[in-house]
Amino acid sequence: MLNVAYKNSALLTNIRNMGKRNQKTIGIIGAGRFGTSAARELLANGHEILLIDNNVKRLESLAGDCTTAIGDAESPEFLEEAGIKEVDAVIVAIGENESASNHAVINCKDFGLFVVAKATDATHGKILDRLGADYVVYPERDSATRLARFITRSSILDMVELYDKVFMMEINATGPIVNRPLESLDLPNTFGVQVVTILRGDETVFPVSATDVAQEGDRVVVLGPEEALQKLAKAVGPS
């Protein structure tokens, strides 16, 4: 089945284009220290920012560099009017107001967006996860700079639909999928996805075998349902 799919010209084109990251538009809700740090890193790397806060003073320092909107992120009507539905992903970086953070996550997920949310503590992190946040970060562990790099490199933002409910995604070989034979990873049973090929510099490892190993710095192209691919990307996490 994979051999047949691989010969499809559209699939070949998509694989060749993998890794060519385009400019992203990222929404950031919460212009505190964490949110503004992430915004500055993203702007420095050529991405566009929609920065949202209910305090106009917090937006002043970046008003000349990005699009800003003043209002309540707990209101889906306000978020839609601000243009949140047009972004590629959202960082919910609201500070101590957990209720506002939770409502912002719900609203953004209702719009079908990829959401990274900042947790105030472990309990809040569990709540955010159950509310549907695609990735939960903890400021004491995850810096705003590291988060900015992760969200724009996230394979989920470049997921390609090949056929009805069949998607292709490229992930960076890192963490739990590095230096282990594909056979031992058992991705089809663990996540419901299948490795198509491994990209190593200018080399393409295809067809892959059970004994092939992804090395640090490789890119791994996988096929599967959207939800299964999201789970895999979340498990691999920031590189």
How would you briefly describe this protein structure?
Keywords: Ion transport, NAD, Potassium, Potassium transport, Transport. The protein is built from eleven helices and eleven strands.
Helix/strand/pairing class, anyone? Answer: alpha/beta
Distance between the termini: 31 Å
Largest sheet: 6 strands, parallel
With strands numbered from the N-terminus, the spatial order across the biggest sheet is 3-2-1-4-5-6
Q: How are helices and strands ordered from N to C? A: HHEHEHEHEHEHEHEEHHEEEH
Mean pLDDT over the full residue set: 85
- Total helix count? 11
Number of strands: 11
What integer value in Å does the Rg equal? 19 Å
Helix content: 25-40%
Strand content: 15-25%
Per the principal axes of the C-alpha atoms, what is the gross shape?
Answer: elongated
Uncertain ranges: 1-9
Protein architecture, described:
With 239 residues, the protein is α/β, with parallel strands linked by helices. 37% of the residues lie in helices and 22% in strands. It has 11 helices and 11 strands. The strands form 2 sheets. A 6-stranded parallel sheet has the order 3-2-1-4-5-6, sandwiched between helices. Helix 6 links the parallel strand 4 and strand 5 (115-118). Helix 3 packs across helix 8 (144-153). The longest helix is centred in the middle third of the chain and has 13 residues, at 98-110. The protein starts with a helix and ends with a helix. InterPro entries: K_uptake_TrkA (IPR006036), NAD(P)-bd_dom_sf (IPR036291), RCK_C (IPR006037), RCK_C_sf (IPR036721), RCK_N (IPR003148), Trk_Ktr_HKT_K-transport (IPR050721). Keywords: Ion transport, NAD, Potassium, Potassium transport, Transport. Residues 23-137 form the RCK N-terminal domain. Residues 154-238 form the RCK C-terminal domain.
